[in-house]
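3.2 Worked example (two chains)
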Amino acid sequence: MTTRFGLILLISSLLFASCSENGGKHDDTSNPDGTPEENTTPGKVVSSDKEKYSIDTITNKLQHPWGIAFLPDGRVLVTEREGKILIVKDDQLQTEQIENVPAVFATGQGGLLDIQLHPDYKNNGWIYLSYAKPGKEGGATTIARAKLDGNKLTGLHELFTAQPYANSGVHFGSRIAFDEKGYIFFSSGERGTMENAQNLGNHLGKIIRLHDDGRVPTDNPFVNTPGAKPEIWSYGHRNPQGLVYDKVTETLWDHEHGPKGGDELNKVEKGKNYGWPKITYGINYDGKPITDKTSMEGMEQPVTYWVPSIAPCGMALVTQDKFPGWKNNILVGALSFQHVARVEIENGNYVKQEKLLDKVGRVRAVAESPEGFIYVATEGPGMLLKLSPAK
């Protein structure tokens, strides 16, 4: 065991107990009741390193929220893992919900997950969903698209289902991002079987890239590799629950849960191997090493990593001018440590981070509205918060 890994093991063993849940698995589905420590009273001004902001609680009645999307008419759609799409209008939760939502494998971490609009939504009307699809052999991460007619989904069409199905209730991924060319990227977790991540013969533990209609791009890296799934863009991932595309730098970012320690923020590039489980900065939940290696030739290093784990979930890139001090920062939700990490990146390199909304609850989703406001969804308690600039 290297000295470096030995230090990581010691830190994880000493510190992780404070953020682990349900037998030490920090990325589980437990939803403890609680009260946020940071005051979310409307109008209260909070000072961060580079911005002052106020927090409005839109609702505190969410159940396992997962994804947030903004319609051009001003409505906000919020997914709940059990299979609901809620509607927020004028910053008020509506009694009406979106109808015709597909059936989901609402088991463990599975269910209805992310929701994103096509970049050209105003012209084509496509809404994309990721969810765990039920089957005879368990569930599988699935991507579908549909259109909205009033409050009803219409023309639902499945574009992709990760193979193979698995009875496991963990590690589905599954976030969606589009690049400036209209390709769709989405994440698929390794479903709790770590060896899947290095196997190009399945879709598990991978970032997938498709045309927006589900076709496989001919320039995907493994299209001509015998036995490999042609949809794969990158591999060696564990459970990526954050994915954003920076159109300015043309960079795809993901974050993913490590085991006990070793959560990662990665710059995701074509055909590259991100190492799980051959390299990791984490250890097993029982305290035993998974590997003694934190690096290997041919495997990518994270831009930054967290030990102990913050259990990252949800991710937003600040692109608007509403919060100029945060522009181009990455906002990462934290389930275990219950905050939003504001991560500063310069020229693709990690600079520093700051905690926002400390102890607010288990942050499941973070999103920037078209106007530049920041929306945060939490569970335990189940809230939708809106951050606005304060002078």
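3.2.1 Second chain
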Amino acid sequence: MKLASVLNPALRAGLAGLALLWSACAPAAGWNLQTLTQALAQYRGGRADFTETKTLAMLDKPIESSGELRFAAPDFLQMRTLKPKPQTLTLMGNQVTLEMGGRSQQFDLRDHPDIATLIDGIRATLNGDLSTLQKHYTLTLEGTQAQWTLTLVPRDDKTREHVRDIRIGGRAGMVRTVTVEQSDGDRSVMHITPVASP
């Protein structure tokens, strides 16, 4: 099975959502890409619940799913889908593990440069590395701190074959939605609710 087919756009959406999930305390003034990434760099890990709606051209009605997202700096990412079917996608370093239906598969990102470019951009965001993020994406931040949208357009041609753009919406330092527009016209919208640590 090819990694590109396993890491479907919906899972990519979840990982992209992780990239801007954790900025809970953004500065009050000077709202821009620099202050956003500075806020991200201060957070070293966390967890959130998600619900996602996917609209696919081949289906008559949208698919809904839900679960949780986890991050631990510098390079641990996990998307655990609970409904409608359990599935866990875990990234640790360059290793990708997909658990589904009682089976586990592993891949090395270095063997899949198009996917690696996407993941490297996500990691750069999680770590507040604006220069690396700009290397992989064209970034546009619109709105105010009270209501903003960050659009990420992949620079890599192969990545753009799968994902046209990712739009993250939020208020202050909290991300509320992640919308992924696929190059084939399919679309996913994720709603994110951060979970406080016990």
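3.3 Remarks
The helical segments are 3-6, 9-19, 33-41, 113-126, 130-136, 157-160.
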